[in-house]
């Protein structure tokens, strides 16, 4: 039978014009319009409403439909559960997790404002519904491409066959004529798009650390955890019940209230009620500080390593004066390299971190006064941090990755580890040291469930080595026709893979095709000015997405992808198309199994990424089964029916779903009968299953406890098997690239950052400010997750996208709250309305990350982004030692009142629509 009992009630709408789509999306795809007409009547007449119109609940009250899961898969890590009310194939209302009692042991996984706007992701006016081709583009390359019209040209609707034939023809031509150095792939290596290009001979890939910053650089070298290959320092913090045993919870560069959804913050609130005091090291007194009545420790962007070095200095001073601050037993037993008496066997320098902090090697003691000049942190705050990091306090030291997305932060992970180790804050109740990020926030540890191992995402090997361009240099490399390679195939998991990185060497680049799946690279990658030039170079640009992103707008082909909530298993409704990854994803909380269930039919002719790629594989003449050796529907159900969770004994597993022969017949699959916790229908209706917990249960987790209990049986993944505060392999991995004449140290020495605070001065010694005296950082914002949700009119109105300015800096420049402000750097300009605050440090400003650009290039020599995308302010600037680092959290700018037209707010702007898809 069909996945959905009823056909899509709005087929005319979904096949209709963009104007009709805009009207209906603005009306919220109402089940009942304000004038009493049904949703289907609206779709037929084309009548619409405004973004403020709220759908009627008549459909729900009269039980015309059913509740289905709309799980949020947008990478914020909140693990929220959403449910949609489905009437005639259309979601007319949303609710959150409310099908079970809200208890401490099984809390409801409630949704944040972003998740509550999921309908606008599904039905928004800018939703891509059909394959589209830029009108002036023609195959064959060169002048046929009319690259100068990208971003300006008109669009035309084409069939899937025509689009895929044209794309396949260009792929074959370019590979035959120019080879793999002519094809550039903007997709993560683990995503399926890379498989097709590997099968054709390889492609140029991007290597960037835009999520994890410098923490992603060989964390195993230091003895830290790695999850899924590059998720660094996760699963090392204690679980949510032990959070309540902490006396202090100290955050470095985090704002969980904005970034991590509802449930993690509920757990932190319970810790606060149990007596934990919260401390936040950040550039602003953010929403989390206010929510948890925390103590704000101000620190300028990019100066966190200096701050932590001063904390080390104070801990040593206090320990020497009165003792009982440093946990010497922990340092001597579980770490190497703190002092010269406990060095690793492979150490090549007779140096250690404790002597460096004292100033033995450079004559500069890392005192609070030294750090305060750099960080702007009061001396008394540094001493306070040293006090509470002492071994007799139950302190949890937690970081997000914002502070490491800064040039010059190469040593921040090791400095953070060193401070945590000095207090012995690992392996015991109430103490922790590690990441508080995404799905691991506030409840760390291994997942309490697992799916059947049938994902089928076989990754083909890279036939083209040295194929990685560091993200900051991506667009400049296109313009230069060459790039510098420092690694073979990216970041490998093996601790000893030092040769993954090698001496920097120049490689040829002959760009003809830009292939984009699963990334909005134009909107999220630095150096937007060079992008606007480089995008004209290619013979063909392909973008696959669910909406009209900036990347899509500058492509030649816009291929409509499915959202997480769409699927078709009825051949009468078009090609059978199933999501492959939804049930295998563990981007969820450790005790939450979400019903990642496709609840509606595809909008228009949208297809899944894998359907598109399989079709392309066939058209280029390759064997589809060799490249994508899995079957969508079977994999989906095998994975789901095979899901199991840990029983209360913490050892044995129980099946989640009861499955019968009737279920197999109903859904057209062949899975054996089994007994489980609930039926599929119950699971779908609830939208999730939350594993019940209680204090002291067998699900408890204390980070590093196995290592602390028996370090010989449970060594860390470093060379020494211990936590390396001196790490020779870390230094060797950095220094082998030879991009900096001054070698980095094996311990956490201070590096003066490029585009950091010191660089804002024309004369540092005499404190004479330079042309760009303001440090800007780009924080995550409650309105969106990266660029996802940014097209929601509801969120645009609820959370405008200003530039946040310190009140003193604003007054000095004659800027008042609400004024339109020109933000300019050495590389570009953008315009935003000002939000003037006293809660952000003087000399700093903040621009929310991920806005959609509105390019004004009426003067080609003076391009301005009216949309507030921070990437136009960045140039091709690489980090001191780690060229892969996207160091976008410290940028030097100047702010001034804008003398042009007042800025239109984002919610007042028309949606970005490619053209009439009719």
Automatic annotation (TrEMBL):
The keyword Membrane does not apply. PROSITE patterns: 4FE4S_MOW_BIS_MGD, PROKAR_LIPOPROTEIN, TAT. Residues 96-116 are annotated as: Disordered. Residues 96-107 have a biased composition (Basic and acidic residues). This is Molybdopterin-dependent oxidoreductase. It comes from Adlercreutzia shanghongiae. SUPFAM superfamilies: ADC-like, Formate dehydrogenase/DMSO reductase, domains 1-3. Keywords: Iron, Iron-sulfur, Metal-binding, Oxidoreductase, Signal. Belongs to the prokaryotic molybdopterin-containing oxidoreductase family. InterPro entries: Asp_de-COase-like_dom_sf, MoPterin_dinucl-bd_dom, Mopterin_OxRdtase, Mopterin_OxRdtase_4Fe-4S_dom, Prok_Mopterin_Oxidored, TAT_signal, TAT_signal_bac_arc. Residues 65-126 form the 4Fe-4S Mo/W bis-MGD-type domain.
């Amino acid at each position: 039978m069909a996945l959905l009992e009823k056909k899509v009630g709005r087929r005319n709408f979904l096949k209709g014009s963009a104007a009709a789509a805009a009207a209906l999306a603005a009306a919220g795809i109402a089940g009942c319009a304000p004038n009493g007409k049904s949703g289907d009547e609206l779709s037929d007449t084309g009548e619409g409403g405004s973004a403020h119109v709220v759908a009627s609940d008549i459909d729900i009250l009269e039980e015309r439909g059913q509740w289905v899961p709309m799980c949020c898969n947008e990478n914020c890590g909140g693990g929220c559960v959403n449910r949609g009310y489905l009437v005639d194939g259309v979601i007319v209302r949303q609710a959150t997790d409310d099908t079970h009692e809200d208890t401490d042991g099984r809390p409801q996984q409630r949704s944040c404002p972003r998740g509550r706007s999921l309908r606008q992701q599904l039905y928004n006016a800018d939703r891509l519904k059909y394959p589209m081709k830029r009108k002036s583009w023609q195959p064959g390359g060169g002048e046929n491409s009319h690259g100068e019209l990208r971003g300006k040209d008109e669009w035309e609707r084409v069939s899937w066959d025509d689009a895929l034939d044209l794309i396949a023809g260009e792929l074959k031509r370019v590979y035959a004529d120019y080879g793999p150095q002519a094809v550039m792939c903007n997709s993560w290596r683990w995503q399926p798009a890379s498989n097709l290009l590997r099968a054709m001979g390889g492609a140029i890939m991007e290597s960037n650390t835009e999520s994890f910053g410098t923490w992603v650089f060989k964390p195993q070298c230091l003895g830290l955890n790695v999850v899924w290959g590059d998720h660094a320092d996760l699963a090392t913090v204690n679980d949510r019940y032990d959070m309540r045993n902490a006396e202090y919870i100290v955050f470095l560069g985090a704002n969980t209230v904005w970034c991590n959804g509802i449930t993690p913050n509920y757990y932190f609130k319970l810790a606060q009620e149990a007596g934990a005091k919260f401390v936040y090291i950040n550039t602003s007194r953010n929403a989390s500080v206010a929510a948890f009545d925390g103590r704000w420790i101000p620190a300028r962007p990019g100066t966190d390593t200096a701050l932590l070095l001063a904390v080390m200095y104070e801990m040593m001073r206090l320990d020497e004066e009165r003792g009982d601050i440093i946990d010497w037993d922990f340092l001597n037993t579980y770490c190497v390299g703190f002092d010269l008496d406990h060095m690793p066997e492979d150490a090549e320098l007779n140096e250690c971190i404790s002597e460096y902090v004292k100033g033995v090697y450079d004559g500069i003691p890392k005192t609070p006064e030294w750090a305060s000049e750099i960080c702007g942190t009061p001396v008394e705050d540094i001493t306070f941090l040293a006090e509470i990091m002492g071994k007799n306090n139950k302190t949890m030291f937690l970081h997000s990755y914002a502070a490491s997305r800064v040039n010059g932060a190469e040593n921040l992970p090791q400095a953070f580890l060193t401070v945590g180790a000095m207090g012995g804050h690992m392996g015991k109740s109430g103490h922790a040291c590690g990441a508080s990020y995404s799905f691991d926030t506030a409840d760390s540890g291994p997942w309490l469930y697992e799916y059947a191992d049938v994902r089928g995402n076989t990754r083909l090997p890279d036939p083209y080595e040295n194929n990685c361009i560091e993200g900051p240099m991506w667009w400049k490399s296109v313009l230069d026709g060459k790039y510098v390679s420092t690694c073979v195939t990216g970041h490998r998991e093996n601790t000893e893979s030092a040769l993954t990185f090698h001496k920097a060497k120049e490689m040829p680049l002959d760009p003809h095709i830009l292939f984009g799946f699963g990334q909005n690279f134009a909107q999220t990658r630095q150096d937007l000015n060079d992008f606007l030039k480089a995008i004209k170079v290619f013979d063909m640009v392909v973008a696959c997405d669910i909406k009209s992103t900036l990347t899509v707008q500058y492509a030649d082909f816009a291929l409509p992808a499915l959202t997480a909530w769409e699927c078709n298993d009825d051949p009468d409704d078009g090609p059978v198309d199933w999501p492959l990854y939804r049930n295998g994803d563990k981007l969820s909380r450790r005790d939450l199994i979400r019903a990642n269930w496709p609840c509606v039919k595809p909008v228009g002719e949208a297809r899944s990424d894998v359907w598109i790629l399989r079709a392309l594989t066939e058209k280029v003449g390759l064997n589809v089964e060799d490249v994508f050796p899995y079957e969508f529907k079977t994999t989906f159900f095998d994975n789901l029916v095979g899901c199991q969770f840990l029983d209360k004994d913490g050892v044995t597993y129980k099946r989640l779903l009861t499955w019968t022969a009737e279920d197999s017949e109903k859904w057209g699959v062949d899975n054996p009968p089994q007994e489980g916790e609930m039926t599929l229908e119950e699971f779908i209706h609830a939208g999730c299953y939350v594993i019940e917990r209680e204090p002291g249960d067998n699900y408890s987790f204390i980070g590093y406890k196995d290592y602390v209990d028996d370090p010989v049986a449970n060594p860390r993944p470093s060379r020494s098997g211990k936590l390396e505060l001196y790490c020779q392999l870390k230094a060797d991995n950095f220094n082998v690239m030879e991009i900096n004449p001054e070698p980095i140290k094996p311990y956490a020495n201070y590096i003066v950052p490029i585009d950091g605070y010191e660089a804002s001065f024309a004369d540092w010694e005499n404190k004479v400010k330079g042309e760009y005296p303001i440090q800007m950082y780009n924080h995550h914002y409650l309105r969106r997750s990266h660029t996802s949700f940014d097209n929601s009119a509801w969120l645009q109105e609820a959370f405008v996208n200003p530039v946040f300015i310190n009140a003193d800096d604003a007054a000095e420049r004659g800027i008042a709250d609400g004024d339109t402000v020109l933000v300019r750097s050495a590389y570009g300009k953008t315009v935003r309305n000002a939000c003037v605050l006293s809660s952000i440090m003087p000399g700093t400003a903040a621009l929310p990350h991920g806005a959609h650009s509105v390019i004004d290039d009426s003067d080609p020599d003076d391009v301005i982004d009216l949309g507030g995308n921070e990437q136009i302010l960045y140039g091709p600037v690489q980090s001191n030692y780690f060229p892969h680092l996207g160091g976008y959290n410290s940028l030097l700018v100047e702010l001034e009142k804008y003398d042009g037209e007042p800025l239109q707010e984002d919610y007042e702007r028309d949606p970005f629509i490619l053209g009439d898809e009719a």
